[in-house]
């Protein structure tokens, strides 16, 4: 009979950029059960909404996480605008979506670099992070910052991005697309990569549905759920949008989805830049208080569907801000995906889920 | 664009609603809690992919001792939210499939999200102080009312004493002992100003004056002054 033992994985581990702990119950080399524990970087940022007024809090929301920063500000601002009954100009909506798609490119390039580094493909890691710099340079020129952009405000955008800059963004992305295609083709045709990823961390379509999984983790199992299909923001103005899915249900499928999403994001940005209207960017609302009531907004972050909820009490401070990030939703899938796998595959599986612990703990 | 709907339900209806949603194929989105002055609010969100609708179940004002049924049997992914809500808000869940026993979030303080802000604390303390001041004012008003009634009774006694004294001085020539009797009866029975029951042993005028002084000393100074003035006026009138 196999010996059963518990191996602690994390909170500090070479493949984990953020602290999460897993107790891996193993029989010989096979994982029987994985028990997660989080809370190492819990900051109580949701509670801070009671001390900062609704205009200030957008900057707090952006600081929940460095990778999903823009999306959090976007989600919070949208939920607050919805509660206050503010309709922002279309140009502001377009700019937000363009920046959100750039954030997706930045997040996926960062993730691919980390994955490559985890299985020793360091040349790929270097190239991914070099290409990511292109996106960060775009942020720097258009927003004045590289990570925490602070361009979103409740009621619109803090400043405009000129048409010349948007044209320059498209030129930069054209170059990025060409180079990224070469990298992706190299990666997916590499024997070692296929060996490490194909058939590993299998999550069936039924399980993904049962566990309400979101983002590339779910799309890699054939689930077509993507909030962008609902047409929020400027997504409704796209000629055509179809989520990228894969039906192999393994780590390789999840990687393919993420890599293809970068190309899709670049296409979306190019289309929106061509169509962007010139009706202003809005500004801070005249109202000094948020009315009583509640509102929620769901957007598609790089890791999947994110949920933002605000509750107003008739003062300048909100009663409650709730942020549910994709990683929280995918923890059930992570636990399921790790059952029955080889111990050596655990880092790969965790990385293909791309957990964001800062977002999860807030 | 998706639509949103908020439904307020009692805690007892939660499982039935969630079972219906599961049967209808809704996707579980999230659950969360919030502390209020009245207790705790819970809200569960589900997403209807067919109609692109987000439905939120609001459960308001559950108290700290309430036991919330777990929905993990229907939506396993709720385990992270239920354990989080337990660890951060102290909400008690029952029948949890995966229960971390308070060790899912590695936080140093129990239920850190229930700690209220200084502003909230100040607001609640201010409200408590206002309520206490209101109660104290009501209590003082009641006391003053009863004191005024007692004063009125005392004034009536004094009047009775003075009346007895006048009667005694009128009959002093004939029978001093008989004249003192009505005054003594008036002093003995405060409620009986008529003093129709004569008594054999009556206190002297000095005793009565001393008793009156003691009463006046115990009174509110303003009222005592008024009583003194009234007595003096009466005495002057009678002297005329």
TrEMBL record, chain A:
Keywords: Iron, Magnesium, Metal-binding, Nickel, Oxidoreductase. Pfam families: Complex1_49kDa (PF00346), NiFeSe_Hases (PF00374). It comes from the Bacteria. Residues 120-280, 289-362 form the NADH-quinone oxidoreductase subunit D domain. Fe cation binds at residues 68, 359. Mg(2+) binds at residues 46, 323. Ni(2+) binds at residues 65, 68, 356. GO terms for molecular function: ferredoxin hydrogenase activity; NAD binding; nickel cation binding; oxidoreductase activity, acting on NAD(P)H; quinone binding. The keyword Iron applies. Its cofactor is Ni(2+); Fe cation. This is NADH-quinone oxidoreductase subunit D. It comes from Enorma massiliensis.
């Amino acid at each position: 009979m196999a010996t059963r033992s518990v191996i602690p994985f994390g909170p500090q581990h070479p493949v984990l950029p953020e602290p999460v702990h897993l107790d891996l119950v193993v029989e010989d080399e096979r994982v029987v059960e994985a028990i997660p524990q989080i809370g190492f970087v819990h900051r109580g940022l949701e509670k801070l909404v009671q001390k900062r007024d609704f205009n200030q809090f957008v900057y707090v929301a952006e600081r929940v996480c460095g990778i999903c920063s823009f999306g959090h500000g976007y989600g919070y601002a949208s939920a607050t605008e919805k509660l206050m009954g503010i309709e922002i100009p279309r140009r502001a909506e377009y700019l937000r979506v363009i920046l959100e798609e750039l954030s997706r490119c930045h997040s996926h390039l960062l993730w691919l670099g980390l994955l490559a580094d985890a299985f020793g493909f360091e040349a790929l890691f270097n190239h991914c992070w070099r290409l990511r710099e292109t996106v960060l340079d775009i942020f720097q020129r258009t927003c004045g910052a590289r990570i925490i952009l602070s361009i979103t405000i409740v009621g619109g955008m803090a400043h405009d991005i000129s048409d010349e800059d948007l044209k320059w963004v498209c030129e930069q992305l054209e170059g990025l697309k060409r180079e990224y295609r070469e990298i992706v083709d190299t990666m997916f045709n590499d024997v070692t990569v296929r060996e490490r990823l194909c058939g590993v961390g299998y999550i069936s379509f039924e399980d993904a549905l049962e566990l309400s999984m979101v983002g590339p983790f779910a799309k890699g199992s054939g689930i077509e759920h993507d909030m962008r299909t609902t047409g929020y923001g400027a997504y409704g103005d796209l000629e055509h949008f179809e989520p990228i899915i894969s039906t192999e249900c393994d780590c390789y499928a999840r990687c393919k989805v993420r890599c293809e999403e970068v190309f899709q994001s670049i296409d979306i940005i190019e289309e929106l830049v061509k169509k962007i209207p010139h009706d202003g960017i809005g500004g801070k609302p005249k109202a000094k208080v948020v009315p009583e009531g509640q509102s929620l907004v769901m957007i598609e972050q790089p890791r999947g569907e994110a949920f933002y909820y605000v509750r107003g009490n008739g003062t300048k401070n909100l009663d409650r801000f709730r942020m549910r990030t994709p990683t929280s939703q995918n923890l059930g899938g992570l636990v399921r995906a790790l059952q029955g796998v080889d111990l050596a595959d655990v880092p790969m599986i965790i990385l293909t889920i791309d957990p964001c612990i800062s977002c999860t703990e807030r | 664009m998706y639509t949103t709907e908020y439904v307020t339900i009692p805690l007892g209806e939660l499982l039935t609603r969630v079972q219906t949603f599961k049967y209808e194929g809704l996707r579980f989105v999230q659950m969360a809690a919030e502390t209020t002055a009245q207790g705790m609010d819970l809200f569960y969100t589900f997403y209807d992919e067919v109609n692109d609708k987000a439905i939120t179940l609001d459960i308001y004002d559950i108290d700290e001792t309430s036991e919330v049924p777990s929905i993990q049997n229907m939506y396993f992914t709720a385990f992270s939210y239920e354990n989080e809500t337990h660890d951060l808000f102290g909400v008690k869940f029952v029948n949890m499939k995966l229960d971390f026993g308070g060790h899912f979030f590695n936080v140093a303080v129990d239920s850190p999200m229930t700690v209220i802000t200084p502003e909230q604390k100040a607001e609640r303390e201010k409200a408590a102080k206002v309520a206490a001041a209101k109660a104290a004012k009501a209590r003082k008003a009641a006391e003053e009312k009863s004191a005024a009634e007692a004063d009125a009774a005392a004034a009536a006694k004094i009047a009775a004493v003075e009346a007895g004294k006048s009667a005694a001085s009128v009959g002093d020539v004939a029978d001093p002992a008989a004249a003192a009797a009505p005054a003594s009866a008036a002093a003995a029975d405060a409620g009986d100003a008529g003093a129709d029951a004569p008594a054999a042993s009556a206190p002297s005028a000095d005793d009565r004056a001393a008793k009156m002084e003691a009463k006046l000393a115990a009174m509110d100074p303003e009222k005592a002054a008024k009583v003194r003035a009234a007595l003096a006026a009466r005495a002057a009138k009678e002297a005329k």
